[in-house]
């Protein structure tokens, strides 16, 4: 298939998705991602090139999906934590612990990969439960409670690897981050399965409602019979599990466990993904798919910088500007103060199609339609 | 015996830990309790300490500043680059301090005017300053200016036999004094405590919230930049990739120093003790020789935990007493 034809199909699909989401809050996140892709279509030669090798798809867009898996996995856990009004700073450190545990068991103890992965995930769940215990059990501020593991976690990971970078070649472990399924990276399947699982868990049961309720007002939730502590404990534990999975993918990507660098600063990317996805840091209503698309957006941004030869050292500057811009757009004060500037933009957008949402994204928790 | 005011309990606990750690070291190693070790402790942790003073103000006001490490690295490379192109060292330091204060003030404005979470704004500051450092120069630059090479080493005082108090340590102690003065003896300091305790009450009392908040972040920027200046004295170089995670050390020092992370309670001398405790743990692990350096992180994590739980218990008791 020639490139222009596949591009055309791709853009028709993007337009269709955007049209389908026109009344959803996630429209803005997907729209931002679309804008970034439009930019790449015109200014980054080769970004849209796709090729098939050994029955697997390769190309920059596939790289984005593969590399973005870590942030997307993290953001699944993070969005629930943030929905309860908390934040989990320890996910990067938990990733390092999971990587250290699995590769240590694999290489030094010669255990089968399945056992190593299971134990690593178990340890991550324990780490998450520890955060949950501090936040829910002792009532410590989430930033502070998870800071403890953020500081100590890397030390623990170093202790497990004994300060070494452990390399491994076990096919199962390598497959996790590098393998292909149905021609696409396996990590994509992993993200989709986790997304569906989480979606089922929070939207098909009452758990999602409880989480939003606790995030909105945990006292009121308690009085109406919701076990707020239990809900909080659960979300931190789940965040630990997601971080563990992300850690396994991260170490599988590079076929080694480097306790110092795995997941470094990834907690920030995950928080950013959640915020870009439309979930307010104040807690309350949350957008699961939004967070995952937010993660994709951040990875696309990073990949664009690399494609444009922006040094990975300087890349944080534009990233920071994006954070500030997104937060400003979500800030109620900014929107009221600059209504004169913003409302013409909204008016301009209106005739573009009556199908556009009526308002720019806000963090308002009560008036937004249910997604 | 008069009952201890609950606000002093964390400070006393910090002092007890400091004495205990120092006592353990002295008991285990004969050379540990010498003035020389203590002076080295002040010297090695001077830049963290100076930056932690600024962090204390932000935490006292109920906020948090994550941009410390990036700021120190940014200022380091800025000064090194300015000296390389032939700038006067005092002018370079002045520019660096102004840049730091300005960056802090900008973050403060974003936080106050747009009601954005301090955590996110300073996170953006972290990214921005780290990247800007690399824009100035992507690699480490050594400083061989005569001021650094010849004048600085002479600016030290012999405090005890074989123990020379270097200029960096003096900067640290001076910052603690200045910080204590600002926090405890000025109107601005009282306003910071008031806002940290309860921002709404402070607003209803008619305290200048805007001015105080922006000034707090500007002050934190100034102290972080000063930490960067001290770091150039100590390292004799500037490197944009250095001091990753320094903000965590600074925050840990403040918390272990007995300042409540919820704001409103704490003392600047506590931060001095917090920095010394972290430094002593590092020194102890160095003296031991068989323990690996990653134990430092674990011990700091455990200490953090103890202090956070202690704070929680105290604030819970304070609430039940009301």
Could you please describe the fold and organization of this structure?
The complex is a heterodimer of chains A (371) and B (322). By secondary structure, chain A is mainly alpha-helical. Chain A has a domain at 67-310: ABC transporter involved in vitamin B12 uptake, BtuC, CATH 1.10.3470. Chain A has 17 helices and six strands. Chain A is globular, with a radius of gyration of 21 Å. Chain B has one domain (6-321): ABC transporter involved in vitamin B12 uptake, BtuC (Orthogonal Bundle). In chain B, helix 9 (187-197) packs across helix 11. The two termini of chain B are 22 Å apart. The model of chain B has no long low-confidence stretch (mean pLDDT 86). At the A-B interface, helix 7, helix 13, helix 15 and helix 16 of A face helix 6, helix 12 and helix 14 of B.
The CATH top-level class label of chain B = Mainly Alpha
| Share of β-strand residues of chain A | under 5%
Helical stretch tally of chain A: 17
Report mean pLDDT of chain B, rounded to a whole number. 86
The description of the largest β-sheet of chain B is: 2 strands, antiparallel
Strand/helix succession of chain A: HHEEHHHHHEHEEHHHHEHHHHH
Assign the structural class of chain B, choosing from mainly alpha, mainly beta, alpha/beta, alpha+beta, or little secondary structure: mainly alpha
Set out the fold topology.
The complex is a heterodimer of chains A (371) and B (322).
Chain A: H1 3-20, H2 27-43, E1 50-53, E2 56-59, H3 60-67, H4 69-83, H5 91-107, H6 113-137, H7 142-161, E3 166-167, H8 171-178, E4 180-181, E5 184-185, H9 186-203, H10 207-216, H11 218-223, H12 228-253, E6 256-257, H13 266-276, H14 288-307, H15 316-330, H16 332-337, H17 339-352
Antiparallel strand pairs in A: 1-2, 3-6, 4-5
Chain B: H1 9-28, H2 35-44, H3 46-60, H4 68-84, H5 89-113, H6 118-136, E1 141-142, H7 146-154, E2 157-160, E3 163-165, H8 167-185, H9 187-197, H10 199-204, H11 209-235, E4 237-238, H12 246-256, H13 268-288, H14 294-321
Antiparallel strand pairs in B: 1-4, 2-3
Helix pairs in contact in B: 1-13, 2-8, 3-8, 3-9, 3-11, 3-12, 3-13, 4-5, 4-6, 4-11, 5-6, 5-11, 8-9, 8-11, 8-13, 9-11, 12-13, 13-14
